[in-house]
Sequence to fold (264 residues):
Amino acid sequence: MENVSVTRRAAGLDAGEKVGSIDKALITLDVLASEPYAFSVADVVARTGFNRTTVYRTLQILLARDYVRHDRERDKYQIGHAAYHTGMIYLHNKSYQDKVMDILVEISELTKESVGMAVREGDKIISLLEVEIHQPMKFNDFPGRYFPPNKGCYGKCITAYQDDEVIERILNGQTFEKTCYNTLTTKEELLEEYARIREQGYVTSIDELHIDGIGAGVPVFDRKGQVNAVVAVAFFREEGWTEKLERFKDILLSYQDEIQQCMP
Fold:
């Protein structure tokens, strides 16, 4: 469970700094937007460090504005439809997304696997577009999910192409938990991995986010030559997975220029 110091740091607040009512509401929304995406009042208190009265009052204000919904049966609070509406405006403002989505669908039809795009916003990496295949086993990734810089194609690829000072800022002061066999947890490991990604021009992920979860991705350069996006294919390990990984990497590289032509 995320501790109070992590929650405050994510909100840009120093330890001991007074938190205003707007910050409290936004921090509460950040909590509700994290796994497991449904929280009791006590859960929010534990995550934020705010007292119970403050949390309850904040939730009621957000509930009245439809930014939060209350599941009475479970007595849990979740993100509401007003937050979805706000997020969709963000997506609408990404004028290239329709063109890129058509390309992602085409790649998914070729690979018969899940395909997605993530983008960098500040120091955060967020999933923007996802095409999920209709198979019994799937990753259930969805737009709006944040990804860390230490594991998976999205986080590693975008971070790898940032300036050295940006990478230092992102990595310094962070601790990474080993959540799977090959999760990278040290700064030294990550810097080596970032250098490898830049040298080869693509990224792979094997048992980093999920057990038997495999992925390949390519950086997306914008018109200024900067990488603030990545497109990746994800699939589960099965017989012949190494050949499949190589083939998917080649497919992504073959579409790289077409995707980049869509970028602003």
